[in-house]
Design goal:
The complex is a heterodimer.
Chain A: H1 30-33, E1 40-41, H2 46-49, E2 81-90, E3 100-104, E4 130-134, E5 140-146, E6 151-153, E7 159-161, E8 164-170, E9 178-184, H3 202-206, E10 209-210, E11 223-226, E12 229-231
Parallel strand pairs in A: 2-11, 2-12, 9-10
Antiparallel strand pairs in A: 2-5, 3-4, 3-8, 6-7, 8-9
Chain B: H1 20-24, E1 53-58, E2 60-61, E3 72-77, E4 101-105, E5 113-118, E6 134-140, E7 148-154, H2 158-162, E8 180-184, E9 187-189, E10 192-193, E11 203-204
Classes of the chains: A mainly beta, B mainly beta.
The structure holds fe (ii) ion (FE2).
Fe (ii) ion binds at residues 161, 164, 166 of chain A.
């Protein structure tokens, strides 16, 4: 981590117009799980602007290598080998160092390693489907995996999820907490997906689509996709009201 | 034309989906051998942690009154003295034996979440007034499009709750009890209702 003074200002107000609203009946599970009343807004207090620090010591050598972290020695998962890389930034464009990034996905056939998963595509004995990493001091991260398959899910009679990777991101404050999904450039399933369509803003959807990045591709090994993640920015200390009694 | 402000836009949220546990608590789902333990699992306290031991228990209920069995709950709280274990906490040094953050998946059969922790001290509001002791909650699940923020206050803190700057600004007083964990002995019960007459107050913070 860079040796900069800790930031103690509240986060910018969240632009709720580009996030999905809670109630999106075409994604049926939201109907009974969406709060109906208005959120109560207040400027972040110390409870929201603080957050824990996850040290690099929690990360094992292969946590960001899904080709290796579940595979038997000498074996590996079936599928297209890819490198996913990018940067965690805040809305000011400042890289977020020390961010915990966790990811999970289906295997190349579109099957998750989960008890409740019933899709007929087979499990891959060499693929767990999850990993994690901590961003470097400038916010950069990467991991290796296979490209996940699309899969059908019970919503409409013929709804399919586009190929995607789930991301959970932990920045510096508890109010920056974010879970999202990364999609792949060129996938025609993206624009048919009820979950994608919960996002009311087309530009916000496009920002979830990772472009193929040939410059980061490892020749004769794996192609690369680039996925930047933007968390909420913080107000400048210059403009803070001085707190009473301080 | 004007100069562009140049801010980036926050990445849009997407639901955690039904398999959030694969990524966040793999051992809980039965996938062992990749992470030694699930991050944020287990007791939040050790022998040296300062403060009053409590257990927080609860369920997350949907609009039909059914407990969610696939939710993931995270909490973040101050130590017993009212200090957060965070670099952004500049008022003092928090208890080194208390991390302050934990994560718990709802039980697969009952949906219950449990946190073994300590009762937090009071922390200041932005104007310096003290807020009542509270634990910050963040809830994600399939069917929740963007993580839900709320707080649990304590039923045995009536006086502090009465002067809490957040609680006291809530217009519909009848909703305030949705933020109060009910304390009986060492157990504090905090049920979260996503909808209905008792819909929990959620915050945009
Ligand atoms: Fe998924």
């Amino acid at each position: 981590m860079k040796n900069t003074p800790p930031e103690t200002t509240p986060f910018f107000a969240r632009d709720r117009d580009m996030h999905p609203p809670a109630y999106t009946p075409w994604y049926k599970t939201t109907v009974l799980r969406s709060p109906q009343r208005a959120l109560i807004s207040f400027e972040g207090t110390i409870s929201e602007i603080t957050g824990p620090v996850f040290g690099h010591s929690i990360i094992n050598e292969f946590d960001n290598d899904l080709l290796a972290n579940y595979a038997k020695p000498g074996e590996g998962p079936i599928g297209e080998r890819i490198l996913v890389h990018g940067r965690a930034l805040d809305e000011r464009g400042i890289g977020i160092g020390g961010a915990l990034v966790e990811f999970w996905q289906a295997n190349a056939g579109g099957r998750y390693r989960h008890k409740k998963e019933t899709y007929l595509a087979p499990l891959d004995p060499n693929f767990g489907g999850f990993g994690r990493t901590i961003t470097d001091e400038n916010g950069f991260y990467w991991f290796k995996t296979v490209r996940p398959g699309a899969y059908p899910w019970p919503n409409g009679v013929n709804d399919w999820r586009p190929a995607h990777i789930h991301f959970s991101v932990f920045g510096h404050g508890f109010a920056q907490r974010l879970i999202t999904q990364m999609y792949f450039e060129g996938d025609p399933m993206i624009w048919k997906c009820p979950i994608v369509k919960t996002i009311p803003d087309e530009e916000a959807i496009k920002r979830l689509i990772a472009p193929l990045d040939m410059n980061a591709t490892i020749p004769h090994d794996m192609r690369a996709y680039k996925f930047d993640i933007v968390l909420r920015g913080r107000r400048s200390t210059l403009f803070e009201n001085r707190m009473e009694g301080n | 034309m004007v100069q562009p402000l140049g801010y980036l836009k926050e990445t849009a949220s997407q639901t955690a989906g039904p398999y959030v546990h694969i990524g966040c608590t793999p051992n809980f789902t039965g996938i062992h051998g990749v992470y030694e333990t699930d991050l944020g699992s287990g007791s939040m306290i050790n022998d040296q942690t300062r403060g009053e031991r409590i257990t927080i228990r609860g369920h997350v209920y949907d609009g039909a009154g059914t407990a969610l069995k696939d939710a993931l709950i995270e909490i973040w709280q101050a130590d017993a003295e009212g200090l957060y274990n965070s670099p952004s906490e500049i008022r003092g040094k928090a208890d080194p034996n208390f991390f302050g953050w934990a994560r718990c998946p709802g039980d697969m059969a009952t949906g219950e979440f449990v946190f073994e922790t300590i009762k937090p001290g009071r922390v200041p509001f932005r104007d310096g007034r003290l807020m009542a002791p509270h634990v910050n909650f963040w809830i994600v699940a399939r069917g929740i499009n963007i993580g839900l923020n709320t707080r649990m206050y304590f039923s045995d803190e009536e006086a502090a709750n009465g002067e809490d700057p957040i609680l006291s600004r809530i217009e519909h007083r009848v909703r305030v009890p949705t933020l109060i964990g009910k304390r009986e002995g060492d157990t504090v019960t905090f049920d979260i209702h996503l909808q209905g007459d008792n819909e929990t107050i959620f915050f945009d913070v």
